[in-house]
Amino acid sequence: MARFLARRLILAFVVVFAVASLTFFALNLSGDPISNALSDAGASEEQIAAVRHQMGYDRPIIVRYADFIFSAGRGDFGRSIFYGEETLPLVVARFPYTMILAGVAMLITVLVAIPLGILAATFPDSLLDRTIVTLAALGQSVPIFVVGPILILIFSVHLAILPVSGAESLWSVVLPAVTLSFYPMARITRLLRASMLEVTGSEYVLTARARGFSEFRVVLRYISNNALLPVLTVLGLQLGNLLGGAVIVETVFAWPGIGSLTRDALINSDFPLAQAAVIVIAIAVVVVNFLTDVVYALVDPRIRLS
Amino acid sequence: MAESVPVAPQDAASLLSVRDLSVCFHAKGETVHAVNGVSFDLARGEAIGIVGESGSGKSTVALAIMQLLAPAAEISGSHVTLEGRDLLAMNPRAMRQVRGREIALVFQDPMTALNPVLTVGQHMQEALYLHEGLKGQAAFIRSVELLNLVGIAAPESRLSAYPHQLSGGMRQRVMIALAVSGNPKLLIADEPTTALDVTIQAQILQLLARLRDELDMSIILVSHDLGVVASLSDRVLVMYGGTVVEDATAEQVLLYPKHPYTSALIAARPEIDGDRDVPLRAIPGAAGRQCEPPSSCSFAPRCPECMDVCSQSLPPLLFVNGHGTACWKVSGIDGERIP
Question: Taking Cα atoms as reference points, which of B240, B244, B269 lies closest to residue B254?
Fold first, then answer.
């Protein structure tokens, strides 16, 4: 167990370091943030050069990279070019919104996908099964930026029962969360259905029936239980995706989470802020993946943490 | 020549009686006739073996008795009675009472027949609670007893083990312990030793023979291996193409086979001290899928002694001195008039 933890911790550092480095070079090789930001404001070349020098952007990229890595190692992610404040508190302030959005989306996913998957697999090839599978295929293939506006049109514009955007009331989370849950919902439904059908055909299910167990017990303890194992892994991966990948949904619904913060930082050429946001997302994904592995080992005796 | 009778000898002390059992599978507009008119009786404490190659319908017979066939299967025109009660006419609830308590089943692959996320102890507890209403300490004591019975050393420590932590032979012993936990009158073992090493095979067969005596169980042993079946069974049914082609004592089948298929099956067994240069005597051809109920001998296309009548008319299973054979060659052409 201690070895497992140590290895995972080292691996986590490597992943976060790699993400930080890639983000740094991708951003800093794309252009000069100071001239991007100031030339629109009508600053002169001298003024821009002065600010660039003041903020250290006139140093060679390798020096800036070393500076960034060492400062980040001490928890200092620099100052936002746009806001002029420390970046980390800015990011951390937005993180709860993303967590709430991802959490609600995950809850909707689980509450809808698991019953649907079980239903579809219990009556394979029935009309119900075919309907569920078709809807799931649709849910997996329609892009999120199509789903979002359609939901806004129906529930905010026509029915006027839910807010269009923002995060003013509790109800604001509903539409973005539903939109965000579409893909994982469809994916989990299909996965659970396939997994259940596979387990249903297994010998231990036949043996359980041969032992005289009731159908209810067979489905609950022998089929669903075992079929949920692969679902758990994918749920973990999807949660990681939701934490980091909510950029589009947060933008469509003006949700003040880390996704919309990242998007704004990129548009404003606010490199330090974008870097801090990406690193925080990377850490969140690493943590979620780690927790998934731990939970998986707890529920499946065949997996050992070693 | 002794008198020929067209049905299996009736036994007054019969535990299980299977009469004219036919099973067909419907899939994608196609119908496959897997079992065609199988009849046999099983006395209390008797062990019979069902032998045949893949697709001969032997496992289907086992599952049909348990009513555990897939929904695509259809059982037609037959009776399966256990102590006089017709299993095929039972509702699902009554049938569940039969499963595990009166008829238990052991499968081929103990690797996949145990739930991978439950411990041996959890499996045992579940079965004991269902069959005997045992819980807690009583269930623990009985579990240890049962594991002892099937020859598992240090049973207390095995109860917390998961299936993947046990060897194949050990898993099969656990399967057998689970199967006998409900004190069944009949144990159906479907290829119980096929997935095991030869030395373990012998141990498992000995175990089954011992349990049969100790628990006064009847056994139906399904296998593709004549040797395995003969070692345990009083009587052997040889199946081909979904029909019983020979039904006799193990000795009669092994030493005096009458049906050409049985003879070929025995000839095809490799000798352990045989000459390596002599090729194995495989039976030419392959068993076909039957999309129609058979109207002639299914083995005719592969039979070295095939006659004209064989591909025209279905030979009935006729008994001479308790040795049943379904073959025109054996019954003689005039057997044509008997059915």
Answer: B269
Angle between helices A61-73 and A271-299 (to 10 degrees): 50
Residue A194: name the closest of A140, A142, A116 by CA: A116
What b-and-e string marks burial along A87-105, b requiring 16 or more CB atoms within 10 Å of the CB? bbebbeebbebbebbbebb
Residues of A contacting chain B (CB within 8 angstroms): 202-204, 206-215, 221-222, 225-226, 229, 299-302
Q: How do B218-223 and B235-240 pair as beta strands? A: unpaired
Residue A160, Cβ density class (10 Å: 0-12 exposed, 13-18 middle, ≥19 buried): exposed
User: To the nearest whole percent, how much of chain A has pLDDT over 70?
Assistant: 99
User: In angstroms, rounded to a whole number, what is the distance separating the alpha carbons of residues B180 and B100?
Assistant: 8
B40 interface with A at CB cutoff 8 Å: no
> For position B296, what pLDDT does the model report?
84
**Cα separation of A25 and A16, whole Å?**
14
Helix (H/G/I), strand (E/B), else coil: B26: strand
Tell me if B217 sits within 8 A of B186, measured CB to CB.
yes
Locate B254 and state its tokens: 């092994």
* Burial of residue B231, with CB atoms counted within 10 A of its CB: 0-12 exposed, 13-18 middle, 19 or more buried: middle
Of all helices (H) and strands (E), which one includes residue B261? Answer: helix B260-267
Helix (H) or strand (E) holding A16: helix A2-28
Q: Tell me the torsion sign for CA atoms B225, B226, B227, B231.
A: positive
Predicted TM-score (pTM) of the model is 0.76
What's the pLDDT tens digit per position in A241-258? Answer: 888 767 888 888 888 888
For residue A203, give the nearest of B101, B113, B126 by CB distance.
B113
Smallest Cα distance from A302 to chain B, Å: 7
The stretches in chain B having pLDDT less than 50 are: 1-9, 335-339
Average pLDDT, chain B: 84
Mutate to test the interface with A, among B67, B117, B118, B176 (most CBs of A within 10 A): B117
Q: Quickly tell me which residue has 């006419």 as its tokens.
A: B89
Nearest-angstrom CA–CA distance, B129 and B126: 5
Query: CA–CA separation, A49 vs A69, rounded Å?
Result: 24
Going by C-alpha positions, the residue among B68, B70, B66 that lies closest to residue B82 is B66
The shortest CB-CB distance from B127 to any of A211, A214, A225 is to: A211
State the Cα–Cα distance between residues B252 and B223, nearest whole angstrom. 18
The confidence score (pLDDT) of residue A4 equals 80
Q: Quick count: other Cβ atoms within 10 Å of Cβ A215?
A: 12
Q: Which of A202, A204, A299 is best to mutate for the B interface (most B CBs within 10 A)?
A: A204
- In this predicted model, what pLDDT tens digit does every residue of B279-319 receive, in sequence order? 766 777 766 667 777 888 888 888 888 888 888 888 888 88
